[in-house]
C-alpha cells in the first residue's frame, strides 16, 4: 500500500517548492508522470477572495510535472503530514495522494502530494489563457497577490533549473496586460 514505506517524501510543484514550512533531510528535483502543473484552482483565501478570486497551482491529469521532493524524517512525519493537510486542504480542493516519482538521481520513490479535484467548484482547469490572466491580475488575499505568487513560482523554478513554458506564458501575458492599463 502506498505511503507505508519508512521513507516519507513530499512532492512539491507550487509554493511548497520554495516555502515548504517543514524540516527535511534531503531535497531533490523530481518528476511526476501522468500529471502537469496548472494554475487551475480559484483561491478565495491566500491569493484572492470570493468576490475577486485569484488562482493557485494544482496537479491536473496528463503530461508530467517537474518539481521538488523533500525527504522528511520518520519521527517528524506525523507533524509534517498534519501541517501539510492544514495548509493545503482549505475547501477540500485537493485530493491528498501518494504517487510514484523519479528523483534526479534516478531513484523511484513514493511521495505525498496534492492533486486537484476535477469536479470541485473551485477547479477551473478549463479556463482559457485570458481567463487565467484576468484572475492572476485580480486576485489578492491573505498571502498576497496571485501575480506575486506566479512571479515567485516562475523565479524559483528558473533558479532550480525547471522550465514551465505554460506558466511563464501566463506570467508574461499578465505583466503585459497590467502594463497596458
UniProtKB/TrEMBL annotation:
Listed Pfam families: ChaC
Keywords, in A-Z order: Lyase
Keyword hit for Lyase: yes
A GO BP entry: glutathione catabolic process
InterPro entries to which the protein is assigned, alphabetical: ChaC, GGCT-like, GGCT-like_sf
GO MF term set: glutathione specific gamma-glutamylcyclotransferase activity
EC code(s) of this entry: 4.3.2.7
Gene3D superfamilies in the cross-refs: Gamma-glutamyl cyclotransferase-like
GO annotation, cellular component aspect: cytoplasm
PANTHER family the UniProt entry points to: CATION TRANSPORT PROTEIN CHAC-RELATED (PTHR12192), GLUTATHIONE-SPECIFIC GAMMA-GLUTAMYLCYCLOTRANSFERASE 2 (PTHR12192:SF2)
Name of the protein in question: glutathione-specific gamma-glutamylcyclotransferase
